[in-house]
Amino acid sequence: MRIILGVTGGIAAYKAADLARSLVRDGHEVQAVLTRSAEEFVSPVTFASLTGKKVLTNLFEASAAIEHIEVAQSNDLMLVAPATANILAEFAHGLAGGFLSTLYLAFRGPMILAPAMNTNMWDHEATRANLDTLRRRGHVIVEPGVGMLACGTFGVGRLAENDAILDAVRRVVNPTLQDLKGETILITAGPTQEPIDPVRFISNRSSGKMGYALAQAALDRGAKVVLVSGPVALDPPRGAELVRIQTAAEMRDAVFAHLEVSTAIIKCAAVADFRPATPAKQKIKKSGAPVTLELDPVGDILAELGRARGARLLVGFAAETDNVLEYARRKLVEKNCDMIVANRVGAGLGFEADTNEVLLVMKGEVIEVPQAPKREIAERILSQMIRLRQPAGVAR
Ligand code: PMT
Hints:
Layout: E1 2-7, H1 15-25, E2 29-34, H2 44-51, H3 64-74, E3 77-83, H4 85-93, H5 99-106, E4 111-115, H6 119-123, H7 125-136, E5 140-141, E6 145-148, E7 154-158, H8 162-173, E8 184-189, E9 194-197, E10 200-202, H9 209-220, E11 224-229, E12 241-244, H10 248-257, E13 264-267, E14 274-276, E15 295-297, H11 301-308, E16 313-320, H12 324-334, E17 339-344, E18 355-362, E19 365-373, H13 374-389
Parallel strand pairs: 1-2, 1-3, 3-4, 4-5, 8-11, 8-13, 11-12, 13-16, 16-17
Antiparallel strand pairs: 6-7, 9-10, 14-15, 17-18, 18-19
Helix pairs in contact: 1-2, 3-5, 4-7, 9-13
Bound molecules: ligand PMT.
Ligand PMT binds near residues 209, 269, 302, 318 and 319.
């Protein structure tokens, strides 16, 4: 495919060089276009050597005014990474002050935009409105991640990881890319509730958002999904076989009832580790005296799956407040998993939030996925599972 790679002026512009290299590696013909401000950060020579093509930079160069029409007509897809607030505004309003924005108006193919900017600029009403306009036009927006920004602040605005941008390109190049077709993925999500009496229970803060995002992403990529879910306030993803459970024991039974049909398992649920030894049949009445609850340990479903998995891919999660990597590595071995998705949990982290930040811990490899919407995290987990399926040495 012939791809226009637009690069605009931001500190993340240097990451576009690696993007250009990966696109060429994936077999694409890449036409790099640098805005005037991008040239302040990166040199056209870098992109010319990586793509093997002259880099287009200035509308006012001789012949460039005609060139934008020719470039627009001879390419199949346009990707802008990083896309500044300014270029989003120019695109949204149809301003044609530079080569890239002129090209945008002349181009008729699919557009992918990977914004990067300061958090306040990203949150600004004007930027939100411009993004809404661009989304309504059907453009794909690869959401920025959260992290330390060039301006020294921490927040949303960091250019998405190149892997996420490349995944977006793959899905646009092949909209019916069903890279999980043939898989039946058993996903557990949400909390469990362990009754104390008919009206009380022990539970945790899991909202189900991470597990449901995984289920939706897997469905979109062609997998069949069995979603074993604890009580959550989310709409079930359409197309998933939903099995609602309340307790850890019910989750265990539902998981093992569907083990035979599954080709991969993702244990995202936050399962109880302890349950009241003898739940009361009637509501426990308060008497003013202290109440002692005796708790029994709950069997570890993931560990049991580790013994029964056969050739299935097995992905566990690890929710830790400290020593995240060390505990995740231990779980990987002890529970016989292919991958542990480790997340730090605590105030505003992991549980309930719309974003997450994880380590994908595998035998001999750890991948850090910076803070991003849970859907984006889900895509990265699934892409990594696909890589684990491939024989060693085969790169995508
Ligand atoms: O639902 P959200 O609000 O979106 O939050 C997402 C999340 C924080 C719940 C999720 O990202 C996450 O971390 N899930 C795992 C939570 C957990 O129970 O972690 P753990 O470290 O206690 O357990 C490790 C693994 O063993 C998990 O895969 C868990 O499903 C599994 N387990 C635990 C206990 C048990 N009795 N049986 C199990 O199978």
